[in-house]
Amino acid sequence: MPADPTLAAAAAAAALALAALAAGIVSHLRRREEAVRAEARLEEIARQVQALGTDLRGAQAQAREEQARHAAGLEQAVSAQLRQGAENLARIHEGLLKGMGEVHRQVTTALSASTEQLERRFEQLTRATDTRLREIGGQVEGRLQEGFKETTATFADVQKRLALIDQAQRHIQELSHNVVSLQEVLADKRSRGAFGEVQLAALVRNVLPEGAFALQRELSNGTRVDCLLYLPEPTGTVAVDAKFPLENFHRMCDPDAPAAERARAARLFKADVKRHIQDVADKYVIPGETADGAVLFLPAEAVFAEIHAHHPDLVELAWRRRVWLTSPTTLMAILTTARAVLKDAATRRQLHVIQDHLVRLAEDFDRFQKRMDNLARHIRQAGKDVEEVHTSARKITRRFEKIEKVELAPAAPAPELGEGPQSGEDDEDEP
């Protein structure tokens, strides 16, 4: 019959438990034996400790006796050392007192000497400081005086400059008023025309003589020209008329105006200039009376520059119609050239007079040369005469000196007849 697996496992487990129990019992028995042996060992140790305590109590009693004897000897030795130390301290204290007294005397002497030296140095330092302070005070006072002088001069200069600034401010205000007045004048067409005429007249009067021009002269066709320039042939009489197309020019240059309005103003400006060119060519170029060209004066440099920079067709039209466009600057150059031409013509007209004067001047110079030669000859003769007079004066002086020597010296034998003076003694200066 086969064995049941459960029973076998239980039997095995029981066997294992019994084995573990047996091992635990054996271990307990072993520990019990060890405890018995340890207890016996402890009893032995207790007996040894008791014996050791008895020996220790004997040793302690002996040590106390030895300590008492040693303490007594030590007390005696300490007492002796204390007495000796007290004596040594007394001697040391006495020596210290003496040394302290000596040190005190030395320190007192050194302090006195140091105090005197410090007082002397302090006095020297005080005197040097006072001297330096007086010098610095003098320098500071001098610099302050110079500074006051410079400040006064600067203040006076500032006052002068302020006065100049005030004067310039008044001039600026007057100029602003004049500019406003000029703007008011230039706003009206007739006023602009009068301004151009006045400017033209001022330029002409400043450059040309009175007989070389005429202002507001009426021509044979009934028109009145602003200025006529009387130049030599072949140029002849040149008409100058002032035109001032300013209104449309301002509108054209206004940056705040719309582009369409500026373009319209540019067209109108161009039409105004073209009309002025044609009017000048038609009215002031008269064959047989005026030159074959006329001058159109534009009082504003900006207008003149605008035409030459952006409107070459107007410049070409002016050249075709024999009209010369000018500004104040270019007109000044033209008038200066005209003055040179007038001066050259006047010189040519007076050329024969100049030649006559040159011939007479040559004759006068010939007479002057002859008279100068005569004068030079007389001067040379006078110089020769003066030199001869000086020679005679020197001879007379030497003879007087010889006479004085004869009076002072002993008498000398008279020279024999036939003996003359020493070689060249009296005649060395004869001319």
Number of distinct beta strands: 5
Beta-strand fraction estimate: 5-15%
What is the typical, i.e. mean, pLDDT?
Answer: 77
Distance between the termini: 204 Å
Strand arrangement across the biggest beta sheet: 1-2-3-4-5
Largest sheet composition: 5 strands, mixed
Low-pLDDT runs: 178-188, 414-431
> Shape, please?
elongated
Q: What structural class should be given to the helix and strand makeup?
A: alpha/beta
Helical fraction equals over 70%
- By DSSP (H or I, 4+ residues per run), the number of helices equals 8
Radius of gyration: 73 Å
How would you spell out the order of helices and strands? HHEEEHHEHHEHH
Keywords: Coiled coil, DNA recombination
GO biological process, one term: DNA recombination
Family: Belongs to the RmuC family.
Coiled coil: 35-62, 165-192
Describe the model.
The protein has 431 residues and is an alpha/beta fold. Among the domains are: 146-187; 191-349. The chain has 8 helices and 5 strands; from the N terminus they run H-H-E-E-E-H-H-E-H-H-E-H-H. It has helices at residues 5-187, 189-207, 247-253, 259-284, 301-310, 312-320, 328-349, 351-408, and strands spanning 213-218, 224-230, 237-242, 294-297, 323-326. Helix 2 packs parallel to helix 7 (328-349) and helix 3 (247-253) packs antiparallel against helix 4. The longest helix has 183 residues, at 5-187. It is elongated, with a radius of gyration of 73 Å. The model is unreliable at 178-188 and 414-431 (pLDDT under 50).
